[in-house]
Amino acid sequence: MDLGLLAALGAAVIWAAASIVSHRPVLHFGVLDFTRIQLPASALLLGLVVTWQGNWHSLNWSHWLPLSISGLVGILLGDFALHSCLKYGGPRRMQLLFALNAPMASLIGFLALGERLSWHDAIGGLLILAGISLAILYNSPKSNSHQSEAIEGHIGLVIFWGLLAALCQAIGLIVIKPMMDAGTDPLAASAARTIGSAAVLLTTLFWPAFRFRALTSRDRRPFMQTVLAGWMGYVGAMTLLIFALQTQNTGIVAVVGSTAPVMILPLLWWLHKHPPSLPSWIGAFLVIAGIATLSDIGTHL
């Protein structure tokens, strides 16, 4: 299997786990404070790792504009929308809606970068998206009764935030794609966009209406969960996804990376003590078939 596809698949697994870890903390802190804990903590770790590796030199700082756009749209706005979707709709619905970044990225990649998908690529991508739909839309009703499946507010809010998060993710990937083609180190690119986004986000602390509330002993566990989920998502999953852009086009990376809704099923089974329904398993096999199709193509590129 192509290393880029493996990296995108690994990102999906990490995202699935991170979304579950994030659910309780985002309800505890609220979206803004949750993001203001997670993003700077992740930026700090990424900055330390890249400094230790000495890979800042791989960045061409003439690319500051696409880096800034990718960070502000793909990370800052995108993750605020993603966390809002998680808060209002739970991890499963969030992952389903976020998976739509794949067709969005394919369309934008076609329009902006002139990327083309072969028939085999398209078949593999359609199998994955069909599998995601089955695995999520026809999940077990018993699983749906769990607290993590409760909807806060109107379903329209869930859909709005989920679609916005997917669109921001697609734009963030498209904008940074030329940099990755030029040989930029994925971890350095991830660190630069995350640090910039965190710096902008922290300016909200100077606004009296958005000041961070004082932490208490009750916040210790959700605080650590927030940091852990950030390291999983920003440091682990995002770096793998950016690495995947070096060997695959944006649409394929987005499709394989969007398999997190299927990866989340066994985790929810373990947590909720109820197995997914038969359509969910069929969906999972469709996803595997789609990835296998893409993998076969990757070995012949």
Secondary structure tally, helices:
12
Count of spatially separate domains: 1
Major β-sheet annotation:
none
CA gyration radius, whole angstroms: 18 Å
Query: Segments where pLDDT lies below 50 for 5+ residues?
Result: 297-301
Number of strands: 0
Derived structural class = mainly alpha
Q: Which sequence of SSEs, written as H and E, runs from N to C?
A: HHHHHHHHHHHH
Proportion of helical residues:
over 70%
Q: Globular, elongated, flat, extended or rod-shaped: what is the shape?
A: globular
Termini gap: 11 Å
Q: Residue-averaged pLDDT, rounded? A: 80
- Taken as a percent bin, the fraction of beta residues is under 5%
Would you write up a description of this structure?
The chain has 301 residues and is mainly α. It has one domain (3-298). The protein has 12 helices and no strands. The chain has helices at 3-29, 31-53, 64-98, 101-113, 119-137, 141-144, 155-181, 186-202, 220-244, 250-257, 260-272, 278-298. The radius of gyration is 18 Å and the shape is globular. The chain starts with a helix and ends with a helix.
Question: Strands, helices and their partners?
Answer:
Elements: H1 3-29, H2 31-53, H3 64-98, H4 101-113, H5 119-137, H6 141-144, H7 155-181, H8 186-202, H9 220-244, H10 250-257, H11 260-272, H12 278-298
Helix pairs in contact: 1-2, 1-3, 1-9, 1-10, 1-11, 2-3, 2-8, 2-9, 3-7, 3-8, 3-11, 4-7, 4-10, 5-10, 5-12, 8-9
